Amino acid sequence: MDHDDLLGLANGVPWLLLPSLDAFYCLEDGELHYTELVDNITDNNWSIRGSSHGWLAMVEDGPLIVLFNPFTTQRIQLPPFTTLPGVSDYRFSVSDTRLEYQMPVSYNGCLCRSCLECDPARSWIRHDRKMLYVQRIILTGDPVSKEGCAAVAVLRGRLAFCRVAYGEAKSCWTAIHQPEGVFVADVVLWNDRLYILDNDGLGVCNLEDPNPNMEIVLVPIREMNCKKRLVVSPENELFFISQQCDPYVGFITGFKVHRLINFEEGWAETNDIRDYVIFWGVNPSICLSATEFPTSQLISNKIYFSDSSLVEHDDQLVHDIGIFNLETRRIEPLPVAPMPSGCLSPVWLTPFLTWD
Question: Model pTM?
């Protein structure tokens, strides 16, 4: 499809970017659209680590971390990997001349702060394993606007951020101070403050502070061994979502949704999110009202999901995508064929056409 014709379908509803197919899946017409827009991001040297406000956050084999808008082809270079908290040095590998990074790495492959001191011999990690360190990057706003935004990186349970405005970023990442034992699962901007979901509570910090600190404000529902997300509804409600998977095969089996009543009463589980739909994936979760987009075939009270993990399907490894019905607790197929595979994850991406 022609570039202008494709962008003519943009109406505020996310599209599913399928890098392995060089295509977008558009809910507006229920079709796959093959386009050269995707060619710029299908290089195996990059890994997608999020999408916000129409921008993809991508980490390179080397030290580069960039924001890329596939609709305008704009790029914004974020501070390099070597300036992230916990990364102390880098060098070229003797074996294959690729970069290695000195970071805290334990024997089981987990990345933690203490291991750099207790196991210095194992502190150098390969270029490909550094992708595990940067789990997600979330933008709090439009990075090319005058007001700018923060790019917040989730780093194996820790947090760092940098400022971006007018399409330019600061020179290094700044750590967000967290209480001991906190392991961050997700963040979301709500009421102009950054809310942080971890295994032991809901925290908050003000990114306008010179040295932002996370403060625990609520103990969440305990959902063990599952992915967790926060999302804000169009009516400014805060939801906590947890994903359930088959422990043997890896396929997603369902989701639980909790709504924040208030900070005194805490969370309440619900199977009814009214006319809302939620988009779950590598991207920060998105919540929309289905009735506001009557032409997009959105069905209320459902979660449209894509997962970064590869699972076995018909003797091949594919990414798990589908639609979860909160009322019936059943998964329905998202009519995408062929199913996406490959190392680059599908990601929900909302066209956002801000130009210089």
Answer: 0.86
